[in-house]
Amino acid sequence: MEHDVIVLSDEVYSRIIYDGFTHTSIVQLPGMQERTIVLDGFSKTYAMTGWRLGFGLMRRPCFPIYPNCRSTATRVRRASLKIAGIEALEGPQDDAYKMVDEFKRRRDVIVDGLTKFPGSRA
Predict the structure, then answer these.
(1) Quick check: is 110 in a domain?
(2) CA atoms of 76 and 92, how far apart (whole Å)
(3) For residue 31, which of 52, 6, 64 has the smallest C-alpha distance?
(4) Number of domains comprising the chain
(5) How far is C-alpha 45 from the geometric centre of its chain's CA atoms?
(6) Phi, psi at residue 56, to the nearest 5°?
(7) In a domain, 119, yes or no
(8) Strand pairing partners for 103?
(9) Is residue 6 within 8 Å of residue 49, measured between CB atoms?
(10) Could you tell me if residue 47 is left (phi over 0), alpha (psi between -120 and 50 degrees) or otherwise beta?
(11) pLDDT by position in tens, the chain (length 122)
């Protein structure tokens, strides 16, 4: 593994998508699961900004590289934050979906307004 490339994939926005698109993680591509570190968090999907709560997913060959990817700002020491993260992942997802719907509505308002300028289009 020492001569192979390790890929770092930030997927914190992976659930904020619109218009019928779906997220495809790089780990779904052939040969990438063994050499990719996926970083994700709770700030975008669950409106937990400021909590600095996130996680990394990787296969064993990436373990030696991982300490270089994290910082002291991402280490969670308080059990209450960890419990909140577990609840966010395992609990009902309705609010997360509602939030994405609201983001889409806001985007559509902005796009609609911008396309009213002469020469612009969506």
Answers:
(1) yes
(2) 23
(3) 6
(4) 1
(5) 7
(6) -120, 140
(7) no
(8) none
(9) no
(10) left
(11) 555 788 899 999 999 999 999 999 999 999 999 999 999 999 999 999 888 888 888 888 787 777 766 654 556 568 888 899 999 999 999 999 999 999 999 999 999 999 999 988 77
